[in-house]
Amino acid sequence: MWSYRGRLERDLARWRERGWIDDTGLEGIRADLAQRGSAIQLSTSLAVLGAVLIGFAAMSFVAANWQEMPRIARLGLLIAALWGCYGVAGALFARGHAVFGHAAVLAGVGVFGASIMLVAQMYHIDGNPPDAVLVWAAGALLAGVLFSSNPALALAMILVGLWSGWETVLTEAVYWPFLIGWSAVAVSILMRRWAPGLHISAIVLSLWMISLGYIVLEGRAHWVVAIIGLAICGLAIVADFVPGIWQRVAPAVFCYGLVIAYVGSFAFKFIENREAGTLTILSFVTMALLLGAIAWGWRSGHKGVLWLSYICFSAELLALYFVTIGTLLGTSLFFLLTGLIVIGLSWLAYRLHAQQAKPQEALP
To answer: With the CA atoms of 216, 220, 221 and 226 taken in that order, what torsion angle do they form, in degrees rounded to the nearest 10?
Structure first.
């Protein structure tokens, strides 16, 4: 909603400047957007919160009376609660109450997950614990697809990440089936063109990629992660030159690639305890790449890329300060050289901006 309002505000300002709408129309659109947006966000938040509370209430009630209930009553209660949630969801969708319908679907997915755990406990089913999370994720995915429910799909993606992480911890190896589960949920989200869900998918995939550095090559593959992140950044820069959807998603893809590359390089330099000389060289290379990212973000007007690059650059400087704090002379020299380089790049950016502005000022 926030990203939509930001784009709309920019469009409104441009339309007003070109005379397509007047001040009265502009204020009317903003007032209607503010009223509808706040009401929808509040109702959505309360509905989802209510669904979560109902789910916890049901699980608490069942847990408190579980031992006193016959098995057939337990199963009947679970099935009734599950289908009751989905039946209510269908009725709400049919009546046009989509917000509350999504909340009911989410409650049903929660009941489904609780049912898996309770049935396994009731019948003393032993097995691989992450499999229960996988079944839960599959149920959430199915509910999300059948009811076109974005919250259910988001929960399915989170559960896929939890399932993969649990398997990774148990096996101490890369769990490649994660890519199958992730792809299934990501495709479902992509088909709905739900931007927040795509960001959730990107975050889960980024965390999985970062974890490779701690698993592959006996936990010394952080440089591989850094290269993967740099490759993603390179693809995003190329995509920025392709008009259409690729150009619109390029900044977000670059940001995720930048995070992957920086986290990988950070672990490679500081966690693997590199030598002082190697650390200095790699740090200069990292900061040079970050300055390049800052320049690209500034030139292309992508504020998210710009600020994320600033944050990574600052984190690099702070890490170097704490690592080299024992050698004050080396630290001072390092910051002096870094400061001079940054000032030089700032002057260069200023000159480039001035040269770009001259032809525009000369136009009548």
So the answer is: 150
- The number of beta carbons lying within 10 Å of the beta carbon of residue 180 is 9
Give the closest residue to 149 by CA, choosing from 70, 86, 80.
86
What would the two tokens of residue 246 be? Answer: 């690729």
Whole-number average pLDDT of the chain: 79
- Write out pLDDT tens, residues 315-357: 887 777 777 655 544 556 666 666 666 676 666 656 655 555 5
**Residue 327: which of 277, 265, 268 has the closest Cα?**
277
Q: Residues 136-175, buried b or exposed e (16+ Cβ, 10 A)?
A: bbbbbbebbbebbbbbbbbbbbbbbbbbbbbbbeeeeeeb
Hey, where are the domains in the chain? 218-355
DSSP label of 269? I
Q: What is the DSSP code (8-state) at residue 142?
A: H
Mean pLDDT confidence for 102-123? 82
Radius of gyration of the chain measured on its C-alpha atoms: 26
**CB 237 within 8 Å of CB 254:** yes
**What dihedral do alpha carbons 354, 356, 359, 364 form, nearest 10°?**
-90
